[in-house]
């Protein structure tokens, strides 16, 4: 890293720099789960914010970073914030085992929290500007991180996931698929979903991340029912009404509807869109205040 910086300094002004996605081999991870940590520090850091971009199933930090539909690399270059790209060791993220569904339980969520802590120190991040985003399995993990590490995250923008705890495995298996949940048949009251999230960090009473939840109406992988269940969960956690305080049609684009439930929960319903809703850099950055 230091050597890289020196080379960067020497080259500065000589030729255009080209920041690249780099692996952090030791991020002080004491969790049993050992996902990889990759980081992208733009050539010109202009912000003390951090965005954690969590990949979908059958992907990796590198694949997600290179995916032209995933705009966080460009956002980082333009606005000068650092991005962290966790890389799973399993096909999908572990959002099913007790270890991952518990604060400091040693699962994938614990390891990602360790990446965030490492990044805050290493890249001089303002701990009040830590943002998490992801699609599909990465969206599920974003919900799990929000529930297990509310103390570490400021805001979340997730695309096409399921509520925190919806993919729980009755056998306790890690990174298990859950057909009941994916099929939209895991239904519970807002209070029950709220309890599931609260139980992931028992006794926690501090601030919680603001949640922006996107889902497509024709999602054939993670049933659109999961949209309402996720809204139910976070409106309950924030103790706000399920009646939107504001509702805007054709926002942020045609056939999308944006519903706000007070300042901390926002739902974006994409009519006619399947799995997964494409990342909307401007709307997610706006939610993060970037
Ligand atoms: C799937 O998740 C639901 C909760 O969403 C849970 O009740 C059920 O036991 C899980 N199924 C399996 C096979 O683990
Ligand atoms: C939730 O909000 C209502 C008012 O809208 C209040 O009466 C109630 O005490 C709150 N519950 C919790 C757990 O804060």
Automatic annotation (TrEMBL):
It comes from the Eukaryota. It is an enzyme of class 3 (hydrolase). Residues 1-18 form the signal peptide. InterPro entries: AB_hydrolase_fold, Esterase_phb, Plant_Biomass_Hydrol_Est. SUPFAM superfamilies: alpha/beta-Hydrolases (SSF53474). GO terms for molecular function: carboxylic ester hydrolase activity. The keyword Repeat does not apply. GO terms for cellular component: extracellular region. GO terms for biological process: xylan catabolic process. Its EC number is 3.1.1.-. It is found in: Secreted. Keywords: Carbohydrate metabolism, Glycoprotein, Hydrolase, Polysaccharide degradation, Secreted, Serine esterase, Signal. Belongs to the carbohydrate esterase 1 (CE1) family. NCBIfam families: esterase_phb. Esterase involved in the hydrolysis of xylan, a major structural heterogeneous polysaccharide found in plant biomass representing the second most abundant polysaccharide in the biosphere, after cellulose. This is Carboxylic ester hydrolase. It comes from Paraphaeosphaeria sporulosa.
């Amino acid at each position: 890293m230091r050597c890289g910086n020196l080379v960067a300094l020497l080259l500065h002004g000589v030729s255009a720099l080209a920041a690249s996605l780099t692996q952090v081999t030791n991020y002080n991870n004491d969790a049993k789960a050992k996902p990889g940590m990759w980081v992208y520090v733009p050539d010109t850091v202009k912000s003390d914010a951090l965005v954690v971009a969590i990949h979908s199933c059958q992907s990796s930090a590198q694949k997600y970073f290179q995916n032209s539909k995933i705009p966080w690399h460009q956002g980082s270059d333009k606005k000068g914030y650092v991005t962290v790209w966790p890389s799973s060791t399993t096909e999908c993220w572990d959002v099913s085992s007790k270890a991952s569904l518990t604060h400091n339980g040693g699962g994938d969520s614990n390891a990602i929290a360790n990446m965030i802590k490492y990044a805050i120190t290493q890249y001089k991040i303002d701990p009040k500007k830590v943002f998490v985003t992801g699609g599909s399995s990465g969206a599920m993990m974003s919900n799990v991180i929000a529930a297990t590490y509310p103390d570490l995250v400021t805001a979340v923008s997730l695309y096409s996931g399921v509520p925190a705890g919806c993919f729980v495995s009755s056998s306790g298996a890690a990174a298990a698929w859950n057909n009941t949940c994916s099929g939209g048949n895991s239904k519970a009251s807002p209070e029950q979903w709220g309890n599931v999230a609260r139980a992931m960090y028992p006794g926690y009473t501090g601030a919680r991340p603001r949640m922006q939840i996107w889902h497509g109406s024709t999602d054939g992988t993670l049933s659109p029912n999961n949209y309402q269940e996720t809204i139910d969960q976070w409106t309950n956690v924030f103790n706000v009404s399920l009646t939107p305080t504001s509702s805007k049609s054709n926002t942020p684009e045609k056939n999308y509807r944006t519903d706000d439930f007070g300042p901390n929960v926002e739902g974006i319903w994409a009519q006619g869109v399947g799995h997964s809703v494409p990342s909307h850099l401007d709307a997610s950055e706006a939610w993060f205040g970037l």
